[in-house]
């Protein structure tokens, strides 16, 4: 019976002649790099993404790591920054970082690749990423300049369109009104609690909790986030986000959804706060698609993404007068400087601050 051995096993078999030896060696290097990252506790999606980036670079260079040159990185960068499909600044920097980490791994004498390549190919891998041919991480925020918070009118328009879709589907007698109502409440909850996509979709019913200090909201005084953005090699971070009086309308909507609408899905055994009719949990792609449909229907700028709701939350909390440390804890930022990046207060707010300062000075 034939069995397919992994590339690393083929290289270790003595006296075995390997077809496509270069390709087998490269696959073995990628396997070893993946094992090293797994040992560091990195997320499997991160590991798979890095492997794809390295395979893409190898295809572009047309050579293998023991033949790579700094010029290959520069030509690769030029290809990524040209044409209509040019990648974002941050994406290219991540690719540079992946290539650099991979070369560091191959050149490390604690691993066999320098000696193995010298024996098999009479060449050795070397570092090809340096400060003069890669993008430096000099700014804490590398998002596109067009990304910004929603203003209040834009938020109102987005939510009005979401609610109107529910009414239109209900009036037509077509299926989908319940899913549309659910998706509308997902967006409102993401904004009212400043949640990332994965955080809001990862909520279970048990994550909706009471706040003893605000008894009038019952069990809807806070949400417990269990799928917060993780640091490299660490599990997802947890935090509790308190409901705030400025968003009481969203809290009332969440209560109505949980108590009246969600049971209609018939998913009593499903722990997810946002179930589907098939008994699964609403996925990231589905939510992104629904958000884009509503945004386009509302005639809003394409630069406004689902994550911009989180930017809006931070900005609006600052305008409401909440302390920076409180905002930082609500959104789960490790550093206050990160929270500051998200904050983009309106001209009206800044003008009012200046006016108040002038009044205090004159009085």
Structure description:
With 363 residues, the protein is mostly helical. Helices cover 54% and strands 4% of the residues. The chain is elongated and about 75 Å long. The termini are far apart.
Question: What is the strand and helix layout of this fold?
Answer:
Blueprint: H1 7-12, H2 21-39, H3 44-61, H4 70-80, H5 89-107, H6 113-121, H7 152-172, H8 177-192, H9 197-201, E1 208-209, E2 222-228, E3 237-242, H10 248-261, H11 284-297, H12 308-320, H13 324-331, H14 336-342, H15 347-362
Antiparallel strand pairs: 1-2, 2-3
List keywords for this structure.
elongated; 2 domains; DNA polymerase, domain 1; mainly alpha; 3-stranded antiparallel sheet; 54% helix; hpI Integrase, Chain A; 363 residues
- What is the first-to-last residue Cα distance? 93 Å
Q: What is the CATH domain class of the largest domain?
A: Mainly Alpha
Quickly give the structural class. Answer: mainly alpha
Largest sheet: 3 strands, antiparallel
What string gives the helices and strands in order?
Answer: HHHHHHHHHEEEHHHHHH
Q: How many helix segments?
A: 15
Query: What percent of the residues sit in helical stretches (DSSP H or I)?
Result: 40-55%
Average the pLDDT over all residues and give the rounded result. Answer: 86
CATH homologous superfamily heading of the largest domain? Intergrase catalytic core
Q: Fill in the CATH topology of the largest domain.
A: hpI Integrase, Chain A
Strand content: under 5%
Question: Which sequence of strands runs across the widest sheet?
Answer: 1-2-3
Unreliable residue stretches: 1-6
Number of domains: 2
User: Can you name the CATH architecture of the largest domain?
Assistant: Orthogonal Bundle
- Number of β-strand runs: 3
Radius of gyration: 26 Å
Based on CA inertia axes, which overall geometry fits? elongated
